[in-house]
Description:
- The structure holds 2 protein chains of 2 kinds.
- Chain A is an alpha+beta fold.
- Chain A is built from 25 helices and 28 strands.
- The model of chain B has no long low-confidence stretch (mean pLDDT 96).
Amino acid sequence: MNEDLILQHGLTLDEFKIIKNNLNRDLTMEELGIFSAMWNEHCCYKTSKKWLKKLPTENEIVIQGPGENAGIIDIQDNDGIAFKIESHNHPSYIEPFNGSATGVGGILRDIFTMGARPIATLDSIRFGLIESEKTKYLLNGVVHGIGHYGNCIGIPNIGGECEFESTYGFNNLVNAMAVGHVQKDKIFYSKPKSIGGLIVYIGSKTGKDGIHGASMASDVFSEDDEDDKRPSVQVGDPFMEKLLMEGCLELMSLGLIESMQDMGAAGITSSSVEMASKGNVGVLINLDKVPLRQPLSAYEILLSESQERMLAVIDEKNNLKVKEILQKWQIDYEVIGEITNNKRVVFESNNKKVVDLPVDIIVDDAPEYDREFYMPRKRKSKDFDFSNIELEDIINTLLSNLNYLDKSWVFNQYDSTVMGDTVKEPGLSSGIVKIHGTQKVIGATTDCNPLYIRINPYEGMKYTVAESYRNLIACNINPLAITNNLNFASPLDPNIMGELVLSIDGLKTAAVKFNTPIVSGNVSLYNQTNEIPIKPTPVIGMVGLNQDLKKINSNKFCNIGNKILVLGKQLEKNLSPYLLQDQNLASNINEYNDLEELDLDYEKKVADCVLKMSDFKYIMSCNDISRGGVFLSLLKMQYNDMGFKVNIPDPIDLFCEYSAGYVIEIMNEDLNNVTSFLSKNGVGYFEIGEIIRENIEINSKKFDYFDIINNYYNNFENIIN
Amino acid sequence: MSFKSAVITFPGSNCDRDALCYLQDLTKGVVYNIWHEETSLPQVDLVILPGGFSFGDYLRSGAMASKSKIINDVIKHANDDRYLLGICNGFQILTEIGLLKGALIQNKNLKFLGKNCFIKKKFKNNFNLSIKEDQVLQIPVAHNEGNFYCDNETLKSLKNNEQIAFEYCKGEFSNCEENINGSIEAIAGITNKKKNILGMMPHPERAYSDFHPSQDGRLIIESLIT
């Protein structure tokens, strides 16, 4: 086979040599296509596998860890929660509306494939600086796409994050997370149960869209690629997905199918190979039977990433019943093959075998690389000059920086109340939905601190996990498990590989300490365009539970006159990276001091105290402290006509970052009980002030309350327009 | 006698379950869920056409659903002077059937709008009896085409016949715009002349449970059953 053809398929010549040696014959074009799809980073994790294996993936509540369409945890009774996060970065840069829409569609399919009804979505989106028209175009398209898909199918979006930073200018990130509710005795897996089971195709017809999408997602970009690659972006149809979801959930509730697999990245190829591999069986599929939108070659059918398609295995006796139900939902359905016992993946077309490969050569022999990586250099310590920084200036820079402002402009384009079970909408510490028909609530959040991770990947990742953890704790939600989306630039650069390796190690350390195993995830590498690598962005999605809806904390002030306490340990100003960055004190990445080591025991101790005080009803409202410090946390808690007055020796400390940081509101009469409880437990606290009416006061200096509030809530829209 | 009601489900409806729960919790009576391909409705006091994207909003929002098999019986139900409520996409369907005047066009900012909004009643009818004059209700909206439009003549007759049920208004402490989607005269909901059919863009079925930020959506069902 010609070398160019091999390279065009994203395989290295060494990889091709392995395949040929294993097979002991030449490959057909279709088979080359299969290896191209299955051996890229997106499908086989060849760079990250070695490190991902180190993550904790099990504990007493994990029902399903990584390796299935989604992870599932046990939340008692017959209830399970399925959840996963996935990236759609490259497609969203090339075609922001469809790229992000199909990202949401894909992650929702991962959830209902397992028999779970999706109950919430979240997202984590990152763009370049807003001064660029390109960023505005991408932001508008991505938000519109995420909204359109989720709104139409009717799943509430309950939260997420949105950051603007220069390295994402030509490589924006779109990570979508979905959470579903499943009855524990009705979970479906991709593993087929019986030899002879019928393989059925359910959903949209196959077209040319998205051919080679998965290998595109594993490639470095250059700006000129944009137009060339647009045909590789899939086009989504949320209406079809809604029908598909209802149809599949109905089939599963009636027990009419054995197993199911979403045709996501690499379409029918990866779904059938995964089925065969998990069941330790073979598949025989007749490509002539695949419902087509237009005439396609066997090669194109194998690699199409047309959306809203499922592959299922059913017992022949259920064939008619399945057909009838899918007809009601107006969904295409075709028997296209069967499960065999020969452990081979066979595709036929025009009475000819176009693919005939042993499963293990595709899956087990997939490459696994141990790439070279560098440890980060030691950092020198530096004192920054804060002498010229006035309190007003800091507040003004905060209120003119998109990263700090209220993001209603984004989430008001999402339906966050459909399904009627939303308890906390986006914009609060974490999103919360009720499990329908119960008093249980699920909290979920997505977070990442790329700047921290670039400074110190290991410690930075611990801070990222801790931030998700605090977001849930602040609402009195008990954190349970994690899904992750590891977005990095090219791993062929040993510095970037080092960030990958060390941040996974940091994730492991924090997840073990918090007993929040990683149950699902996704890796997105080669996020760099024009040789500008993105900041390391391993996004965390964390999910937690409270059995009693009534025990949830408010994140907004409750009553004028109540006391405000700050808990945790402040990072001093020279050690607060976002403060240094956003006040323009540090001009390049080498200037920052190393991150202060995050004490996870302390983090956990403070969290346990917040949960206890919430259950005692001492806490009237609570918010965590992150980028923007105590000040931003207080501003987010502002509600109705309430403001705050605070006293603090050095007001710049109000903007410093924290470990185990929370702002809590308590009633005056509880002050003694609360402070003695905190002292007894060794939790640092600071009585910083109280809630007042229509005023913001710092050390007796009054600020323009209405001006600050208006800027905080409206400036995002003013800046992006 | 207990209050009976029904919710129609079209392909792409996504607030049908919400409407069912809303009716079950507030009416305590029998609630039927009717698939769009059925041809007859049971005898009920109230039918809800729920929100969502029936038939994927193809052609125009509500256009395809207005031709569904069940619609003949929905019209018959309304002609018998029984109650018919269209919420969001349901409102769009009612204007497409022609049971309500006007049309719902794209929001003035050309974006989907999902947030809490504030409404008050304009003219009295059986759907808003339990709501006081000038009482501000907080109810979520979630729509892309909620901008009510009609010609001057229609507007005049809507006013003369007191068919405007709800209008958007300002909420205390809220920086939410008064007329959130650009509707003519900030119209949020209208009735037919006989006032037994109501179409409204806000979602009362998302504002009734204790854990919802507002329970104002109860008032509509309470108006009908008391």
